[in-house]
Amino acid sequence: MPQNSTTPGGSAPMLGVLRPQIYRFRLGNFEVTQILDGFRVSPGPHPTFGQDQSAENVHNLLKANGLPATHFDHHFVPTLVNTGKELVLFDTGNGKGRIATAGNLRDLVQTAGYTPQQVDVVAITHGHPDHIGGLMHDGKPAYPNARIAFGEVEFDFWKKGQVREARKQNLQMFQEIAIPFEDKATFLKPEGEVVSGIRVVNAYGHSPGMLAFHVESDNQSLLIWGDVANHYVVSIQQPEWATGFDDVKDMAITTRKRILDMVATDKIAVAGFHMPFPSLGFVEKSGTSYRWVPASYQFNLS
Ligand SMILES: [Zn+2]
Hints:
- By secondary structure, the protein is of the alpha+beta class.
- The protein is 20% helix and 27% strand.
- A seven-stranded mixed sheet has the order 1-2-5-6-7-10-11.
- The chain starts with 21 loop residues before the first strand and ends in an 8-residue tail after the last strand.
- Zinc ion binds next to helix 3.
């Protein structure tokens, strides 16, 4: 039968890419929600990743892993942990209006079933824009009842303001939206606690005072590693390659290797801010290096 405009079938519109944005799972007695603040498609990964390598080296690695060499998809994924006593948000995403394809965290916190007022603690891994950008919303604290917890070394670094040229704009942003929290904030040191069950881990290097967070409940562990590794192939299979985003490059490499070794040896699950959504997985040793193994259904069963 000939089709015309009133004939059903074959006329559904093309709707474009549809991305999952929220994933919640149990970790012991805690609930953990991964939220896609947004994404950015950028040219590269070379030279941002493998900055000290030839383009060919990096392209070959990508090709061997089935990835394109000319563009990459960079995800921004804050983590929300409900311990049953406190609701703790790790990083705040980009904030509204800075990147067209990001800044959705606060809306999605609500889609996930929480209100911004319910967030008790906001813990910041480091002071880069995609992590602090959502501290404010319409010029006011985005999570009005939350205690803000910064790394002490990280906060002091930005407060002193001795940043490299590429971080000048970032410094201005930190001064505008993070410094106003100073009087009411708390300051974290490695081996300290954010709340009971969540320990602070030294991850200095990507930013001078970056922190990771070790979450543990009922013998289950998760490392929220911030920006320890920012490309799931290049940074993990070649942790010694220099990265344009890393502020103290040698220290970032040393930290990356130490933390990759720790999570691989101890088989600790990882929530990685820039790993592909839901940014939850494991690191396995592979030859003399490592590889990222995304979680499948392990966390749906408990
Ligand atoms: Zn980042």
